[in-house]
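A quick aside before the break. I want you to see a complete sequence-to-structure record at least once, exactly as it would be stored in a machine-readable document. Don't worry about memorizing anything.
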Amino acid sequence: MNPSLVADGLVLLHALFIAFVALGGLLALRWPAVAYLHLPCLFWGIAIELGGFVCPLTPLEIQWRLAAGEGGYNGGFIDHYIVPLIYPPGLTRGTQILLGLALLTGNGLIYGYLRRKRSRRSSRRR
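That is the input. The structure line, written in tokens, reads:
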């Protein structure tokens, strides 16, 4: 097994997970059953952002990079891969908190809409 390929796969998995956390509520608008998978992922993402934790995928990726003879890096996945693409240099704690609150607010609006939609449907059936 090629350690560099495994590390790259973990980066891809990590990026897909982040996209699902951020946008999975939109999938739940079309397929409500997605909410059963999305909500735990969303709560995990919010906890990571608000708590300032490092996702377990990050040290695992670094471990595989080192096994491949590549250099590891300090900080987390977002610091290393996402921040350079989206944010000016350095991710501050305040920015992390804003990201967590944006996840909470945006998805709260989506799930609030879904809940109202479902309660209206159930009240029509009565």
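Two observations worth writing down. DSSP finds five helices and no strands in the chain. Helices lie at 3-30, 35-51, 57-67, 77-86, 93-125. We'll return to this after the break.
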